Amino acid sequence: MNHLSAIIFHNIAAWWIAPSVVIGFLYAWLLYSPNRTLSSTQRILFVIRLVTVSFIAFLLSAPLLSSSKRIKEKPLIVFALDQSASMMIGKAQLATAQLPKNIESLKNALGTDYNFQTLSFGSEIHYSLTYTYKNLSTDFSQLFNELNNRYMNRNLGALILISDGIYNKGENPVYQSPIKAPIYAVAMGDSRPKRDLCIATVNYNKIAYLGNDFQIEIAVEGRQCMGTHTLLTVTEQGKTVFSKLLAINSTDFRVIVPVTLTADKEGLKSYKIALSPIEKEISLQNNAQTLFIEVLNGKEKILLLADAPHPDLAAIKQAIESNANYEVKIVLADNFDQQTLAKYNLIILHQLPNTQALLNKLDKSRIPIWYIIGNKTDFNLFNQSQSLITVSSNGAVQEVLPRLNNDFFAFTLTDATRNRLQKLGPLLVPFGNYSVNGQIVSIFNQKIKNIETNTPLLFFGVDKQTKIGVLLGEGIWHWRLEDFQDNGTHQAVDEWLSKTVKYLSSKEDKRKFRVYPVQNTFDENEDVVINAELYNDAYELVNTPDVSLNIKNHLGKTYTFLFSRTSNAYVLNAGILPPDSYSFVATTKLGTDKNHVAKGKFVIAQQNIEYKQTTANHQLLYTLAKQTGGGLLKPTEFNAIADSIRKNDNIKTISYDHKRYSEILDQPWLLVLIVTLLAVEWFVRKRNGEA
Questions:
Q1: Can you tell me the mean pLDDT for 278-307?
Q2: Of 340, 358, 435, 641, which has the fewest beta carbons less than 10 angstroms from its beta carbon?
Q3: Residue 575: which residues within 8 A CB-CB, separation 6 or more?
Q4: Residues 178, 183, 189, 192, CA torsion sign
């Protein structure tokens, strides 16, 4: 490294040199009077004072100091080792066992002319080589993004990529922006297809309803297994609930087997899907898969109560039931049975109420109600039934367009849905006066022709401690047809209706102690994170007491944890747990209250994606090497990599100048120099008796 320094004079510093010398001369002249003859010592002191004062005056102009440094950077050789489980399939262990020795041998062959960096990749990146091969997925795009970001401005010479080429996560690396360095790919594994059976995919819904049948679809694949048979079984708690013998009649066999099961018990159910092994199969780990399905006791029930048949009724029912969690029953007011009210989570009144008797039946139900107003609504009874809004109308109607309220946050709609809803046609709204009496939140306001108003079209509120929704118009069926005509789907209107129903029918959680995992299903290599909230009598969040948690698997093994505190709640990272179904019990005590207990369940799903492809993808490695000017090599050709790197003219040590500008006042040696000159002058004058 070579260092060069120079003083940079800007305009002010340049013209200030002469005045600085004059100031220094005058100061020295006044100190050493010209009326007497100066001795040789005094002449030296005169010069010291002249130089010191001139220098101090010059420094007031703040000149810059430029320093230049010549830096030589050796090329960086990065070793990236695939740590995924597929690296150990079949006879690949023989080659992987030699990797530590081969990597060190290559480093020694390259010598001190290069810098080295080693890292492992798979489902995540670590800057070390562990040779464990336990990662449950392979992500090449994560590797290349890391290299591009970390070594963007470095002299990256080459990447030694040691992998079998199998990836199952992230983008296809061939179509990703390649790194700006040649890739020398060491092709591990065997690219020739081996005899193997596997459960490729299982398609299923994670939720089923008690008493209903549900279906799962199992995709079975067989490679090089022609002429053999395998037994596909589905078991629940050791009991076989389905079996089928499969005859494999091709070298590249694939079949989808539909299986119908019955949700006969509420709770979390596990099903094990397995294929019986065949002779000389390369891997048995992809022959089985466990899935978990939560069986719920019934759907959310919605009562759609109407004055008379109307196209809106079918549109609303179809939209709401597009969500499998909801079941809608249409009943005309004349056939309404008050005794059935208790089983419903939400009542939708279409152009009702119209009789005092109906109003009396609904008055004490305390079930959330969504009013959809029309020209047949009795507004006197409607005004009596709730206190949020008063409507005065003689029965005439007008066309009103919806204007989305951007300040509505009770629930969220996708941007695509928001854009589509604002392009919908008008609803028929009663013409009259509207007086808002209570606190409401409006999702739509009325737009009459081109005039935007603050009058609500659809709003929500709370009346008599019960959620209330009011749509001041009819014609939803028009909206649903428009949505399909313009976009080919009912997605926008269905999403709006489904989320409106979900918001109104959801019950307010009054529990003082709530514990919930961040998700119901975790992958087996994913940290289990659980949150907890504790409320005092004023329903304020507190986190003073300790919260303990016991997690138990299906065999009864228990893990005990203590929650950590956040700003006003609790969080627990239980780390990585084995694949299984788990239940948990959390306990705490606040003050003199009784113990608070919260229970729940979650599942850790096993990942077998590393075993679903057992044939190495050397073509992928070859393409990456060719794209970047590198090469594809066998595990026994490590020494050839050193020769290729040395012969590559693009992999060389580079040198560059690093310039730095700083104010000369920042240099500590200046202070030392000035103090030294003044100290010498003072000492000499003191010795001569002049100070």
A1: 86
A2: 435
A3: 527, 528
A4: positive
The pLDDT of 361-381, averaged and rounded, is 86
Structure tokens at 636: 């026994």
**Number of Cβ atoms within 10 Å of the Cβ of 209:** 18
**Residues 6 or more apart whose Cβ sits within 8 Å of residue 357:** none
Which residues does residue 95 pair with via DSSP β-bridges, in sequence order? Answer: none
385-439: pLDDT as tens digits: 888 999 998 888 899 999 988 888 788 888 888 888 888 899 999 998 899 988 8
pTM: 0.56
- Helix and strand numbers (H, E) in the chain are 14, 35
82: β partners: 121
Q: So what's the pLDDT on residue 619? A: 93
Q: Which residues pair with 236 in a beta bridge?
A: 239
Q: Which residue shows structure tokens 């990529």?
A: 161
Residue-by-residue DSSP string for 346-407: EEEEES---SHHHHHHHHT----EEEE--TT--HHHHHHH-SSEEEEEEEEEEEEEEEE-TT
Domains, in order of start, for the chain:
2-70+660-687 (no CATH), 75-190+615-622 (3.40.50.410), 196-296 (2.60.40.10), 300-505 (3.40.50.880), 513-605 (2.60.40.1930)
Question: How far is it, in rounded angstroms, from Cα 504 to Cα 370?
Answer: 8
pLDDT at 567 over 60: yes
Contacts 24+ apart (CB under 8 A), 45-52: 45/681, 45/684, 45/685, 48/677, 48/680, 48/681, 49/24, 49/681, 50/21, 50/24, 50/25, 51/24, 51/677, 52/24, 52/674, 52/677, 52/678, 52/681
Query: Contact, 504 vs 344, CB < 8 A?
Result: no
Structure tokens at 73: 């950077």
Q: What's the gap between Cα 277 and its chain centre?
A: 38
The DSSP symbol for 135 reads B
Name residues whose C-beta falls within 8 Å of residue 570's C-beta, 6 or more positions apart in sequence.
Answer: 531, 532, 533, 534, 543, 547, 563, 564
Tell me the three-class secondary structure of 407-472, residue by residue. Answer: CCCCCCCCHHHHHHHCCCCCEEEEEEEEEECCCEEEEEEEEECCEEEEEEEEEEEEECCEEEEEEC
Q: Work out whether strand 267-275 and strand 288-296 pair parallel, antiparallel, or are unpaired.
A: antiparallel
**549 Cα distance to chain centroid:** 26
Q: Are 358 and 371 in contact (CB under 8 A)?
A: no
- For residue 50 the two structure tokens come to 């002249």
